[in-house]
Amino acid sequence: MLNVPISTATNRVRRDRAAPTQIVEADICVVGAGISGISAAIEAARLGRKVILVDGLPALGGQAVHSIIGTFCGLFANGTHGKQFTFGIADDILRDLGAQDALHYRRGPMTTVVMYDEVALGRWIEKTVLEAGVTVLVGAILRSVEMDGRKIKSIELANRYGDVVVKATGFVDATGDAALAWQAGLECQEPEGPNYGSQMMVIEGIDESRYPTRDEMSARLAEKAESYGLVRHDGFAFAFPGRGIALVNMNHVETPLEPLAASARGIEGKIQADRSLTLLKAEYPEAFGNARVRAYGFPGIRQTRWIVGTQHLTVDEIRAGTEFPDAIARTAWPIEQHHNAAGYVWEPFAEDHVHYVPFGSLTPADADNVVAAGRCIDADGAALSSVRVMGPCIAMGAAAAHALDLAGSGSVHQIDIAALRRRLAANVGLAD
Ligand SMILES: Cc1cc2nc3c(=O)[nH]c(=O)nc-3n(C[C@H](O)[C@H](O)[C@H](O)COP(=O)(O)OP(=O)(O)OC[C@H]3O[C@@H](n4cnc5c(N)ncnc54)[C@H](O)[C@@H]3O)c2cc1C
Are 328 and 219 in contact (CB under 8 A)? Predict the structure, then answer.
């Protein structure tokens, strides 16, 4: 306890004029601090660029941290011990979280996915972003974009403590909803029907030794989910070994691009999540009888609005494993489309399959200094459902950083693609 006098003094203040707008300048402004934007910001800063990373949430990490996605998918080739496909910050995360015992590798017959502790990932992101020298602006919602011909000149953001204008040479749209391209008036696309999101949650107090198999749980969900009021009749509850907790993803909820509807659906997602816990407790009392919710994520949003790029990645190209001359990312993750309330389409690939993301899918045709990354790149709905998982998101973020670095004050449409791919050699298989 400190032996100092208490403090009673206050200053009386009144807002008697418009608060000044703060202006920040950078080489590269990354909008969206999910896993794609994090990758872009760290890679750009490591290239010596002055980087600002902005996000509407009050903390970094996007869905990877705050929606408790909980599992890195699409990082490894198919097969029980498939090789790693994406490197860069993926290596750093696997090394550093692995050293903290904050990862669990699920090596299934199809592929390897990596469960992570979302608290550890959140702190890793904050520490790494700081070490890289990235300027951070959180709690800042994008309100408008000023264009200068084919270039974004500046963006305006509203933070609870005041407005901020960011001027930059290049911009990354890592918002997931193509919010930057949309506000800039660039052409975007939306799916014709709904694409469901899910309310993730972590439950604690489970008995891992009495855990049902995934096949058993799938069969039970197909049979019983409806009777518990669940709209979705499949899903999973993955145990994190040794922690007595499980990650539950068993519901579908719409994720509309309309403020009031989106807010209402967020609460509906929690109602659905609670029903899945009721089901687990009743159907598997030995494993889940003492379970309770430890944490709900923020609403999990899969596919909403995305850019129109110079190339539209198609599901046929995914199935064929088309190796584009401008490929910048690869994965083998299945087509995993959640466009039906009752379940999802799952189309896995053979053990030697690889598919690629072309750089053209990241570049809005009508802008010279913008690169998209993550779940808002140009693809058809089925193709996007595969390449939006976090492995390729990390690779796309790296590609966006290197492309803007190569473009400098020129156009991202005129960079040397061979030079870009040499920089991304490990992620595109040139180094295999
Ligand atoms: C329920 C669910 C389960 C999933 N399961 C897996 C899985 O197991 N493994 C896997 O690898 N992938 C999974 N995915 C997919 C994956 O999680 C996402 O596609 C990926 O995390 C997207 O990352 P991102 O960086 O592109 O976008 P996001 O993580 O969505 O980040 C976008 C960021 O932009 C910010 N933003 C948006 N608009 C604005 C604005 N106007 N102003 C300011 N900031 C803004 C947001 O706040 C957010 O932080 C799942 C997705 C969902 C929804």
Answer: no
The 10s digit of each residue's pLDDT in 270-328 is: 999 999 999 999 999 999 999 999 999 999 999 999 999 999 999 999 999 999 999 99
Same-domain check for residues 408 and 315: yes
Residue nearest to atom 13 of ligand 1 (CA): 389
Supply 23's token pair: 């202006």
Pocket lining: 390 vs ligand 1, CB cutoff 6 Å: yes
Q: Is the CB of 102 under 6 A from ligand 1?
A: no
pTM (whole model) above 0.85: yes
Structural domains of the chain, count: 2
Helices 35-46, 390-407: inter-axial angle, 10-degree rounding: 40
CATH code of 347's domain: 3.50.50.60
Tell me the CA–centroid distance for residue 420 and ligand 1, in Å.
Answer: 25
10 burial (CB, 10 Å; 0-12 / 13-18 / 19+) is exposed
Q: Is the minimum distance from the CB of 392 to ligand 1 under 6 angstroms?
A: no
